[in-house]
Amino acid sequence: MSSVSRVGLIQKLQADILRLQGFKTAKNTSPDIGLGFMREAFPNRSFPIGAVHEFLSDQTESIAPASGFIAGLLSSLMRNRGTTLWISSNRTLFPPALKSFNLEPDRFIFIDLKREKDVLWAMEETLKCSPLTAVVSEVRHMDFTASRRLQLAVEESQVTGFIIRHNVQNPNTTACVSRWKITSLQSDPIVADSFSGQKYGVLPGIGFPKWKIELLRMRNGRTGAWDIQWINGRFVPSMETSVHPKFSIDIPEEAERKTG
Amino acid sequence: MVRRYVSIWFRHLNTDWFSLRQPHLKKTPFVLRTPSHGRMIITAVNNVAQRKGIHVDMVLADARAILPDLEVSDDKPDLATKLLKCLALWCIRFTPVVAADPPDGLLLDATGCSHLWGGDQPYLTEIAKKLKERGYDVRAAMADTIGVAWGVARFGKGPSVIDSNKHIEVLASLPPEALRLESGTVERLHKLGLHQVSQLIGMPRSSLRRRFGSHFMMRLDMALGWETETIQPIKPIEPYQERLPCLEPIVTASGIEMALLRLLKTLCFRLHQEQKGLRMAVFKGYRVDGKVEQVQIGTSRPSHNVDHLFKLFEMKLSTIEPALGIELFVLEASKVEDHIPLQEKMWEGSGGPDDPELYELIDRLAGKVGMQAIHRYLPDEHHWPERSVKPASSLQEKPTKTWPTDKPLPLHLLKKPIRIEVTAPIPDYPPMLFRYKGKVHKITKADGPERIEQEWWIQQGQHRDYYRVEDEEGSRYWLFRSGHYDDQNYQWFMHGVFG
Question: How much of chain A exceeds pLDDT 70, in percent?
C-alpha cells in the first residue's frame, strides 16, 4: 500500500470517527452560527450542535458575559423558531433583555428549581426531548458521571446543551465537548464615521458588548482566544476601533485575528 | 341545596308534528286516528279541533258528525316516544340532565342552571319561546319538586315559576289530577268531593293509604318533596372512572404497574373516542386492611396518551405502600377537558409551543418539581423593571404587545436591588466609583440617566434614575439612584448586569 492511499485512508477514518461521535460534517446543513472567524478551531470547521458546551465563570457577576455569548449563539440556532429551556436554581436572567439578542423571550421556558441536584436531573430529562432547540442550565458542581449522562442524552436527541458553571476555581474533567471562558472587556468607543471619511469624533458612553472568548478545550478541535463584539445581531471580531453601523457599509467578516 | 325542576307539557305533541310538515293543517281541525275493536278512535287532537269540542278517545264517526270538514291522518305508533327523545336531546342546551316524561312531557333538572340565563323567569320564558318557535304548543313550569312542576304546567292558573319553598302552598290549590295519579283514583277522589289537594294534605296518612293505596301516598310525598324522586337522564353522565378488582391482593410494584397500565388503556380509549383529554387523574389502591393509597397527577394540556400518562404516574408509584396487598384499583379522571387534535403546522417546524412532546416534557418536570417552578414570560405594560414582565398562563398564550426594544436592558436583573456605596461628583452625573460586595469598581464609561417614575396607582415611592456604567475590568452594570440628588434620603442601588 502506498503512503498516499494510507493518508487518504486515515483521513477517511477520522471523518468516520467524527461522524460516529455526533459531529456533523461541513456538508451537513448546520446553521451558520456567525462564528466564521473561529471555525478553524471547530471539528469539521463547524460549530458542534447536538453537544454539551461548558462555560466557566469564576464569580457570580461573570456569568453575564457567558449568558450574553450564549444568547448570541442561540439567536442563530433558534432563528425565531423552536423553544429553549433555561434551568437554574437561582435565576437572575431578565427575559426582556433577550430581545436585544434577536430572541423572542416568550419562546423561552424557565425552570426555576430549589435544589441544585434537581438542575442536573432536569437538564438530562430535557436534553432527551428532541423538539427543543437548546437547553441552558446554571450549575455549580458537576462531576464527570453527570456530564457523561448529559452527553449521552444529546447524542440521541441532537439538542444543544449549554452549561454555565458558577464560581469554578479548579474545574474538574467533564465529558462536555468544549469548555469556554467568557470575560467582559472594556467596550470600544464608537466612532461616527461618515462616507466621506470625515471624522465626527468618538461618541460618548458605552459601546457594543465586547467579550474575550477563551476556548479552553474543544474535542477534536483546537483551542484559542478571540476578542469579539456583538454588533447589530451578529458576532464581529474586534478591531482597533469599531465603526458605527449606521454609517458603515460593510464590516469585514473574514478578519481573522489569531491571538491564541 | 335546593333543587329546581322544569316540567314541559306538549299539549298537542303529535298533531303539532304533522302540522309542521303540512302547514295548512294548523288552521283546520285535525285529528289522528287508530283502529280499535273495529272502530276508528281519535288518538290526538289539534288546537282547533279541541276548541270545537272534539277530544281524545272519541269515535271518529262521532267527530265527523260534529265537524264534517275534519282532516284525518293515521297515527304513527311510537311517534310520541321518538319525538320526546329528540326534543329531550335538543333541550340539553338548557341543562345537562333532561328526561323524557311520556306520554307528552319533558323533565329538566335545572338546579344551578337558570342563573346563566339571568334568573328562573327568563330561563323558563326562553325554553317556552324556543319550543314555540319550533312550532310546538307548550306549557312549562318550574318548581322545587318534579311533582309540583308537572302539576303547575298542566293545571296551574297562576305564575309558572314557583319560588323556592312555596311549592306546598301552590300544590294545595291544584286539583287532584295534578298529583300524577291513575285515572281511577282521580275519579274516586272527585266522587268523594275532594276537588283540591289542600283538602287531602291535612288528612291522616294511615286512612289515605288505606283508601287510595301506597302509589297515591308516594305521589303525594313526591310532590311535597318528602320523598326524593330521581329522573333518568336521556344522556347518562358517566364519570370517567375505571375499576380493576383483583382476585388475589397485589403486593408487587410490577403488579401495580400492570394494573395502572390496564386501567389507563381503557380510560384513554374512552377519552379518545369522545375527543376528551384528562387534566387531572387519581389512581387509588384499596388495601386489604381498609386503607386507601392514592397518587395524583396533573397535565398542562388535555391528554389521552397512555405512555405519557403512565410516565407521569410512574414517578409517583413508589409512594404507594401495598402492605398486605391491594385488592381493588380505581383510576378516576377528576378533571376532563376537550382535546381537539391539532393540525400539524408544517411551516412552524417542530419545537414550537404546540409540540405535544414539549407538553409531555413539561408535565414530567411538573410532576417532579411542581408546576410553580415552570415559568414563561410575556411583556406587560409597565416601565418599572420588576413589573415589565408577567408570567404567562399557558404555553400557548401569545404576547399582547411586542417586547420593548427601544432601550438596552440588563441580561441579568437582581431579584432585589442591592444597596451600594457610591461617589458621584456632580448632581445628576453618573458615579465615579462604587463599592459592591466589598469591591471597589472604578467607572470608566457611563450612559444615563434614564428616569423611571413610580406608578402611583400601584405603589407610592421615589422614582429611579438608571445609569449604565462600565468599570475598568469591562463589566457593565445597571445602577440607579432612588430619589432626587438634593433630597436627603436618596440611595444608590445595583440592579442588574449587562452581557
Answer: 80
- pLDDT-derived band of residue A257, with 50, 70 and 90 as boundaries? very low
Nearest to A184 among B385, B409, B474 (CB): B474
Of A190-194, B230-234, B433-437, the least confident: A190-194
A67/B355 touch (CB, cutoff 8 Å), yes or no: no
pLDDT digits (tens, 9 = 90+) for A118-177: 899 999 989 988 888 899 999 988 889 999 999 888 888 888 999 999 888 778 888 888
- Cβ <8 Å between B357 and A129: yes
Q: Which residues in chain B are closer than 8 Å to A93, comparing Cβ atoms?
A: 411-413
Asked if the Cβ–Cβ distance from A126 to B412 is below 8 Å, we say no
Q: Do residue B201 and residue B281 come from a single domain?
A: no
**Domain final residue pick, B237, B266, B301:** B237
Q: What is the pLDDT of residues B293-303, one digit of tens each?
A: 889 888 877 88
Residue B10 shares a structural domain with residue B132? yes
**Is residue B177 domain-shared with residue B268, that is, in the same domain?**
no
Contact A113 B408 (CB under 8 A): no
pLDDT surpassing 80 at residue A45:
no
Domain boundary among the residues B221, B237, B253 is at B237
Q: Which CATH class is domain A46-187+213-222?
A: alpha beta
Q: Which residue of B has its CA nearest to A102?
A: B405
- Give contacts of A98 with chain B, Cβ < 8 Å: 411
Q: What does the H/E/C string look like for chain B? A: CCCCEEEEEECCHHHHHHHHHCHHHHCCCEEEEEEECCEEEEEEECHHHHHCCCCCCCEHHHHHHHCCCCEEEECCCCHHHHHHHHHHHHHHHCCCCEEEECCCEEEEECCCCHHHHCCHHHHHHHHHHHHHHCCCCEEEEEECCHHHHHHHHHHCCCCCECCCCCHHHHHHCCCHHHHCCCHHHHHHHHHCCCCCHHHHHCCCHHHHHHHHCHHHHHHHHHHHCCCCCCCCCCCCCCCCEEEEEEEEEECCHHHHHHHHHHHHHHHHHHHHHCCEEEEEEEEEEEECCCCEEEEEEEEEEEECCHHHHHHHHHHHHCCCCCCCCEEEEEEEEEEEEECCCCCCCCCCCCCCCCCHHHHHHHHHHHHHHCHHHEECEEECCCCCHHHCEEECCCCCCCCCCCCCCCCCCCCEEEEEEEECEEECCCCCCCCCEEEECCEEEEEEEEEEEEEECCCCCCCCCCCEEEEEEEECCCCEEEEEEECCCCCCCCEEEEEEECC
Taking the Cβ of residue A71 and every Cβ of chain B, the question of whether any pair is shorter than 8 Å is answered with yes
Q: Calculate the average pLDDT of chain A.
A: 79
Across the interface, whether the CB atoms of A69 and B369 are under 8 A apart is answered no
* Residue B383 is assigned to a structural domain of this protein: no
Where in the sequence is the domain holding B156, given as residue range(s)? 1-237
Mean pLDDT (whole number) for B265-284 = 89
Residue B396 lies in a domain: no
Whether residue B344 is contained in a domain is answered as: yes
Inter-chain residue contact A184 with B476, CB threshold 8 Å: yes
Question: Are B54 and B75 contained in the same domain?
Answer: yes
Confidence (pTM)? 0.62
- What domain count does chain B have? 3
pLDDT class of B261 with cuts at 50, 70, 90: very high
